Amino acid sequence: MSARFGARLVNENLSLNMSKNVDFRDWYKQLVTKSELIDDYNLPGFYILRPWAFSIWETVQKYMGERFQEIGVKNISLPLFAPFMDKLEERYEDLFPNRWIENPIPFIYSREFLLQEGYSGFTNREESIDEVYKMLDIYNNIYSDLFAIPVLKGRKSEKGKLKGSDFSTSIQIIEPNNGIGIQAASSTHLGQNFSKKFSIYFDNPKSPGEKEYIWLTRYTLSIRSIGALVMTFGDDFGLILPPKLAPIQVVIIPVGLDNYKSDYWKLKGVPIQLEIGLENLISRQIPLNIRFYNEKCILCLDNLASELNVLLKKIQSDMLKIKTKELNDCIEMCLDWELFISKLERHSILLSPFCGHLKCEESIELMLNSKGINSKLLNIPFEQPKDYSGKKCINPKCKEKVEFFALFGQSIC
């Protein structure tokens, strides 16, 4: 669907009346609405994606499509309705027909969303496992190259993995100021469970007449990525968009106008605003506001195009560097249960020893929930501490051997 919009009302309120650090959810809902990413719809939990948001999603789609084509993945379109709901319910944790989202969050957890979902089939387990990690790396590159957001790659726990799969991997985004974990994408090894359920097989070339079930993988990234972008970089003045994702990278504000245009483009997250008046044209010196740094600088008009390109690349790079440092600084190692509880109450992100057993994870969540703590195991990072011998599982009731360190924190999805 396409749309065009005419003149805007200049007296529209552009300011946010809630701070990110006071009421995160209220701030977020105001920001995605006032920055014109979405409009509300007359059905709760459904939203209209406006051109600003859809342009960002199209950039992500283009980047993904190019990477997928390089490795032979092709696009298809499937019908909306599934004729085998009974089979799907047994295998997909998120397809219960009676499920209802009680507290929808735009982009993050809504009742309808845009999703890239891919499947690949192989004749052997080794190739299918390689595909899982290859797709996870593509998603990792999307976030680092386009979004300028660092992620944590890891394996999902037995409780967190896709139901019916061999194993699931994911990348987590951490919003450090509020200690929130967001699953940004996933790549799953389905094994042969689904191919057996739906009779998907191939003729074994080594044994004519013999059929074997294929090995399947599943990989997904959704429009939740835009919500993660807003939460990661947004501030009390509006969006902050990385140059590679911004629908508009530079805007020109004529000197002498009121602050409406400047505030409007700041709210929209445009990386650079140029302020140009007659005096600037005469002096050949152009002032500009840089959204991410929240500071002003001056460029020479004679080299403006080339200097802007250099500056945009620097902004993109600095956004990733700064957020990477924030991510590394916000993760704490915790070995003591009482400290574990107190830190999670303050929305910390913790790396703690864990045995890996399903019942132990369920026990941890029950104990946390009993104290009103909305935290859980986010994933098991691939990068592990070098030595965890002699460490005890963070669950004080557990006597099992520690297998790895797991990431725990608050999750809103």
TrEMBL record:
Q: Does the keyword Membrane apply?
A: no
Q: Which UniProt keywords apply?
A: Protein biosynthesis
Q: What are its GO biological-process terms?
A: prolyl-tRNA aminoacylation
Annotated signal sequence range = none
Name the InterPro entries on file: aa-tRNA-synth_II/BPL/LPL (IPR045864), Anticodon-bd_dom_sf (IPR036621), Pro-tRNA-ligase_IIa_arc-type (IPR004499), Pro-tRNA_ligase_II_C (IPR016061), Pro-tRNA_synth_II (IPR017449)
State a single Gene Ontology molecular function. ATP binding
Q: Which domain of life is it from?
A: Eukaryota
The Gene Ontology CC terms held by the record are: aminoacyl-tRNA synthetase multienzyme complex; cytoplasm
Looking at the record, the residues that make up the Proline-tRNA ligase class II C-terminal domain are 337-411
Pfam families listed in its UniProt record: ProRS-C_1
PANTHER family in the record: BIFUNCTIONAL GLUTAMATE_PROLINE--TRNA LIGASE, PROLYL-TRNA SYNTHETASE
- UniProt-recorded name of the protein: Proline-tRNA ligase class II C-terminal domain-containing protein
Q: Can the keyword Protein biosynthesis be found in this entry's annotation?
A: yes
